[in-house]
Amino acid sequence: MVASAACDGDPGAPDADADAGGDAAVDAAPPDDGVADPLPPSPPVLTPCPEGTVERLREGAPTECWPIAEPACVGEEVRYLGETTCGSVGSACPSGDFPDDVPAGAVFVLAGATGGDGSLGSPFGTVAAGIAAVGLGQTVVIGRGTYDEVLSIGRSVTLRGVCAAETILTSSSASTADGILNVTGGTVTLRDLSFRDALRGGVVVTGSGTMAHLEGLLIDATSSFGVYVDGSARATIDGLVFRDVATDTAGGLYGSGLVVDTSGEVTASRVVVERAHSAGINVLGGAKLTVDRLVIRDIEANNRGDGGRGLSIKGGSVVDVDRLWIERTLEIAVEVRDVDTVATVRRAVIADTRLDPSGLSSRPFSIFGDSRVTLRQVVVERFGDTGVFVSTGATVDAEDVVVREARGHGDGDFGRFVEVQRGASFTGRRLRFEDGKDAGLAVTDEGTQVVIEDLHLEGLTGRISDGAFGRGINVQFGGSLELRRAAIIDTRNVAVLVDSSSFIAEDVDVRGVTPVDGTRRGRGFSIQFGASANLVRVRADDTFDLGLFAGGDGTDVVAEDLTVRRITAPLCPTGESCSVDPGGIGVGVYEGARCNVTRIDVSEASLCGVHVAARGELDLAGGHIRDSAIGACVQIDGYDISRLDSVRFEGNVIPLEATSLPVPPASMTISM
Q1: Whether pLDDT at 22 is above 60
Q2: 0.85 cut: is pTM over it?
Q3: What percent of the chain has pLDDT over 70?
Q4: How confident is the model at residue 215 (pLDDT cuts 50, 70, 90)?
Q5: Which alpha helices (DSSP H) does 140-293 contain, by range?
Q6: What Rg do the C-alpha atoms of the chain give, in angstroms?
Q7: Cα 357 from Cα 306, distance rounded (Å)
Q8: Is 419 exposed, middle or buried (0-12, 13-18, 19+ CB in 10 A)?
Q9: Which of 164, 201, 239, 506 has its CA 20 to 30 A from that of 608?
Q10: How far apart are CA 386 and CA 671, in angstroms?
């Protein structure tokens, strides 16, 4: 075969008389069987919105449910998640020193009282005196005032304040282990109290068989922790606010609002954690936490510069969260790690996860170490490197999830929606990813498996540091991806790269792939270096260079109903020639790769509808190649043209041409 003038000249005006015999043979193809279009993905379902949320409407996107944030609460007030207005932490403050509804048999305590007997008319002056005098199962009523004491309770009693804003328990003595109040046995109820301004934690609940009920409590400006539940103790919470929990006075490493440790178990509702350190809530040591209506915000690092997480779950613990709002955490919003650790998150909004002090990490979800996570109706927006990071054998099941505004590292790299690596697995249904940088979905390493149904992925602009990449999906180094019903829109460089990995795709629609500055390539699919791809009802519209590239020994592509339309030649910088890399090819098969297509529709390729060269093998059965400069560019001596002649060639300037085009290179792998 000989080279055509179309290779070096204007691909729109090649020699119309070249290789006429081959053209005639190809034009005798059987009638077109028709090529099926891909089915569209279903959007995430995030409604109906629960009480106390507002609908957020975005053009072309599903309706989202967002917490009410305005107007901001002032003073001691709080707006629990799901409530429309600000109010008191617990009960509203009455006019007198004590609550109006006091149970019979109660013992009374009032700050500054002396010589009392615990009656309403002659209260005790200390809480310790009230605890010592109260009967089993009875109530100590603590009046207005501040009480500087370290307290211990080992039997079933109730401590009730006048209101959280006016009954203040504190301690002037420092400790990293004990709280202001330490519950070591029995069933204890704490109601309408605040624990504040202490160089120690607020409340400790410990010991097998110990139960605490915490209602309407404010933990403000304690250190080390706000509430600590451990040693197989149990606690229930209804209305608990943590504010400004400082790091401990020893190493400055700890300063969480709520800690559940060593097989402790907590069931909670209406919890707010603001301005803690290290972690808003820390669950570890095989503990359990079930919580609904949880807010965590403005978490900072410890004195060593570590942490700043919203919710940390590890050590084989089990956590179930329904209705969660996390904003402005540092580095990680939700961390789940370790064998047998299980977390379920439903109806959540995770926003504004800030970069860590190094500027290199900002992950709303960091899931690793063989842990298991379930996500339902979750919105993630505005973060640094990766929205959902899954690694080292972890398993994630995600449904109705939106991830957007991946801004990248401080050094300008990354900016991904989901990354799955190192043998982890991810299953997703009804996902929407928008506005990222270097890659939308990254799947890496042997044993890593991702299965997604119904994905809308849009808007990759390339990494900030150098403009490189901007890929929709990147599968490499032995990873596996199954994708069913997906729209991949407005990406750069390559919409879908599969490198030495496995890819199964049904109903995948790629639209608009623009070149990265300096490379000129904007490919739809790049299957390379021993990768395998099974494609059913797949389309690539408006690409540059190549609609589908298959290259490298061992690469195997099997496709049914493949559509590639409007493939433009690469953009050449002013004054440079593109003759060494002309592009504008619908499907190209090179360097020992194999591609078998049943029913193909290629149209408006600026150079070649299909191109086979350098030991590539291409088989076509049914469909058509039309309205292109050259229908089929064949660059292998003695190639059996009958492998291509069961398609219809329509409206091409030249249906079939022998060429000596340069073989396009494979795409680069992406850094992990």
Answers
A1: no
A2: yes
A3: 93
A4: very high
A5: none
A6: 32
A7: 8
A8: buried
A9: 506
A10: 13
